[in-house]
Amino acid sequence: MIAAQDLHTEFQFAQEAESQLSSDTDLEDPDGKNAKTGKGMAAKKGKKAPGDKAKGGGAGRAPGLGRVNGHYQENGMETLFEVVKMGKSATQSVVDDWIEAYKHDRDHALLDLINFFIQCSGCKGAVSGEMFRHMQNSEIIRKMTEEFDEDGGDYPFTMAGPQWKKFRINFCDFIAVLVRQCQYSIIYDEYMMDTVISLLTGLSDSQVRAFRHTSTLAAMKLMTALVNVALNLSINMDNTQRQYEAERNKVLAKRANDRLENLLQKRKELQENQDEIENMMNAIFKGVFVHRYRDAIAEIRAICIEEIGMWMKLYSDAFLNDSYLKYVGWTMHDKQGEVRLKCLGALQGLFHSRELGARLELFTSRFKDRIVSMTLDKEYDVAVQAIKLLTLVLQSSDEILTAEDCESVYHLVYSAHRPIAVSAGEFLFKKLFSHRGPEEEGLPRRGRQSLNGSLIKTTVFFYLESELHEHGAYLVDSLWDCGSELLKDWESMISLLLDEPVSGEEALTDRQETALVEIMLCAIRQACECHPPVGRGTGKRVLSAKEKKTQLDDRTRITEMFAVALPLLLAKYCVDIDKVTNLLQIPKYFDLDIYTTGRLEKHLDALLRQIWEVQDKHTDTEVLEASSTTYHSLCNEEFTIFNRVDIARSQLLDELVDKFNTLLEDFLQEVGASGCFFDAHDLSKWDLFTSNYKLLNTGLQNGDMPEQIVIHAMQCTHYIILWHLAKVSDGSSLKGDMVTLRKQMRAFCLMCQRYLNSINNAVKEQAFTILCDLLLIFSHQMMSSGREQLEPLVYTPDSSLQAELLNFILDQVFIDQDEDNNSTDGQQDDEASKIEALHKRRNLLAAYCKLIIYNVVEINTGADIFKQYMRYYNDYGDIIKETLSKTRQIDKVQCAKTLVLSLQMLFNDMLSELGFNVDRSTSAFCGIKELSRRFSLTFGLDQMKTREAIAMLHKDGIEFAFKEPSPQGQGSPPLNLAFLDILSEFSSKLIHQDKRTVHKYLERFMTVQMALQRDDCWLPLISYRNSLQVGGDDDTMSVISGISSRGSTRSKKSKSATASKRKLPEAEENSCSSSDAVWMNREQNMQTPVMMHSPHLTSTVLRDPKKMRQEDSCTPVPLQQQPHHHHQTAIDYNRRGSGLMEDDEEPIVEDVMMSSEDRLEDINEDMNFETMDIDLPASKNRRERSELKPDYFDPSSIMDDSVLNVSMF
């Protein structure tokens, strides 16, 4: 017997101050420190405690005779655990068999029950009869803990699968049936229940999770079963009390004294049983629940909260008070969503009953804020249940939730998670639409004055106040499950839109009408498609037969109703973009057969007329697209109305095409005319930049604008910027014009950059040409000649723009003739068209090369150009050669690095194609070697001038050769070692001192084994080392610039400055040996080289060519002609040379692009750059060739206006 002196008083809630919430301690003591502490499992006076188990009774019974469901347990047959796990027999019969065994030998039956709990925990051990008779519960638990194997971590209640899920159900049923079957006798024998409760209490305090979990579940289910017993006893006591009172109130003659005594005795027995049950429940609650509701395992905490909710619901008189509610309130703050979910479930069970909900006012006021905040819980399931709980709270009382509390739930109807949104929609519907006043009882069923009409207005008001107007479909979907009848009342919606308000009724505003049209469209879509809107739900679900019938009925009603009303609605709101766009989407949900079966053809004609008027009045894209969609929906060949709709559509399209052709012709004429005037006249005061930019932006967005329009718009915008620049440069502009020009120029450059990805070649070429022009004009050289005030306009292209420009050149210029698809009229085989295409490509390449020459883009981008020299010499050799010459004048060292980079790129391409084993006899390798030889010739004869550049070239080449190890492992040559054979072509350009220095630098990368190798694969290293050996050549004297075997116009013009030979000072010769190794330690981040002289600023006004050539020529002045008075000094490799500012820059005296096979005839050509005529490949038709535009790419015309048709700086 569980005996505690005051345990029964725990249930006498009216007598204990603790049962009432007299202070805040009950709801603010999560650890249960204020709970009463009874003696728990201690025995009552005169009774044995469970720890002191009776040793009599069945002590002399031999083991092995106990049966459960007819099965022996300890003689190798099935145990109670196995019987429950298999579930072959009904739980009732299993319990009955156990009860029979208990009556026969209670110790042995109880031992089976104890082992049942032990085995349910997953423990392999078993309690023997000896242990049961002589050991305390704590000792038994300790022994079982020692035998428990926790390595696996799994036990029956954590195992997955249907078998174990069923076992959990059978386990709970077994405990409930056991108590129910024993409630009249056995549970009061002061032995069975005491032993079980004592065991479960001890197991629930174990460190082993499996013991703790299993015993807690068993104890909580045992407690729930005892609550049912206590409830039955309470009911019986009330009935007995009523019978006693009725019998006692009888007159003395009719009163049966023996009956009174029997009723009195029965009530006394029931009271004693009630006290016994309360003691048991109190022991379980204080011994198990109070400790385990805050267990470290979330599942154990969830079990406790779920069961206490059952107790409060079943036996509210005993448990529905703040002493027990506080545990639920505290646990709502649990970190695990599973536990919080059980708390909400427990509270929902209480609020479902209005009677119980009324007794929760104090609890609700204390924990309401927490429940409201849980609507935003990170666990979606918890948020859904929190909203449902608030809906139940709202039903129990309207006064508990404030307006702020409700608003926090309202906005959840727009949630992307549909269960949350639907729950919030139910809350909203209950709050706003469920309460009807007496004045609303007599209203009509449908129409503007109906109850639904008022509710629809309320929906519109809520929709507008939520400030999430673009989510009307979400609102309708949220309300659909609970308010579909209201949302399907399209008759009332049409009446609100078309009918005039009666006297005293406030009409809908334009904004409210727009919202109503949107809600109406969303309701139609929801009814016809029967699935949530996009973004809410995983896709279409399979509809049941009932849902399909409802869908067809709704679609028929929609067609019959809106076939008549839609033309009227379009006529009323014809000029309103938002309303018309939504209304035009309704016909796609029609059942078009209704037009024929319902004889509604005249309404179809009215609809087609209204669509015609709509498209005629509107230019908005959304309206026109909606009109197009409507025609597409109505033009269905399966229906008889197709011919009628097709005729109307054809008439509309004919009219639109005629308008389009007329307007396009006029537009092209106007754009062409404006472009022509922009070329020679300043039209900037009309501010046409915005219009042209908008036109270009529209072309990008749509992608289908004719190329003539785009090209003309680009040209016009280009001229606008140039005229604006002319004004700013002259100082005649207003304040702030420079900022405007800077913004416009950058925006236009970005626009042209985007057009580089156009699919139209003509548009791409125009964008590229204009970009090159603008980048050159707005480069840093625009500040020269005293124009420092233009510095804010300087624009430097970023890396992405440089990369796109280079990719354009590689894709559009360096192509084979057969790949060119730009020939006119498709005559690709015509020679004249090929020459024209080549001329165009040459101009594109020239435009990009000017960016390199004037240092607008990085010099190293020229590597991709230079490497194409051999392959495309006939087409672009002169342009690449001139670019190389000008680049060297800018920065010798950087030019040399670019040359070796181009060779490295070709070498890498060869490795990608041919593999790692380089065959130096292949045509690809020989071609790279021949290119390096030609590059070497471009450095001229004056080795002192190019000393530093050649040295840096060798340094980069050596590093590249040894950069990648051999993929074949140690002992094999580096992957790029063959590059040294290519690099040896530049060895002749090294002076003796530098050859020794380069050789020393080479030895840094070599090992002793490499020096001893003589295999063929090491020949590049051997030949390169030999080329660095100081041999018979006498390089002690450097060749002085200014004297060559061939004359040069450039040298002639500077004859006055370079007429006499200049010898190197002795200091320079002495410094050569001392500076041999300086270049090896030279920093890579050098100062910016001296740029070429920028051209003069000119306007775009048409001028006399001869006068412009004399006065405003854009030709860079050769810097050799500039006056100077400084003397030659010793070469210092620790500083950057002055580039073209040196007087004695050498002329290029040899044909640097000579073919070894004598394919060219210009071996002795005169390098007079100012008079050089760049000829095109021979043409079969000389007349056609003479008609082509001249090709301007030589030093005298590098910035000529005719190249880009504009004047530049």
TrEMBL record:
An example Gene Ontology CC term for this record: chromosome, centromeric region
The keyword Endoplasmic reticulum appears for this protein: no
Pfam families assigned to the protein according to its UniProt record, in alphabetical order: HEAT_SCC3-SA, SCD, STAG
Biological process (GO), any one: sister chromatid cohesion
Gene: stag2a
Assembly description: Part of the cohesin complex which is composed of a heterodimer between a SMC1 protein (SMC1A or SMC1B) and SMC3, which are attached via their hinge domain, and RAD21 which link them at their heads, and one STAG protein.
GO molecular function: chromatin binding
Species the sequence originates in: Cyclopterus lumpus (Lumpsucker)
Coiled coil: 230-283
Record-given protein name: Cohesin subunit SA
Functional description taken from the UniProt entry: Component of cohesin complex, a complex required for the cohesion of sister chromatids after DNA replication. The cohesin complex apparently forms a large proteinaceous ring within which sister chromatids can be trapped. At anaphase, the complex is cleaved and dissociates from chromatin, allowing sister chromatids to segregate.
Domain SCD: 289-374
Subcellular localization(s) per the UniProt record: Nucleus; Chromosome; Chromosome, Centromere
Organism placement in taxonomy: Eukaryota, Metazoa, Chordata, Craniata, Vertebrata
Family from the record: Belongs to the SCC3 family.
Residue ranges of the region described as Disordered: 1-69, 1035-1076, 1106-1127
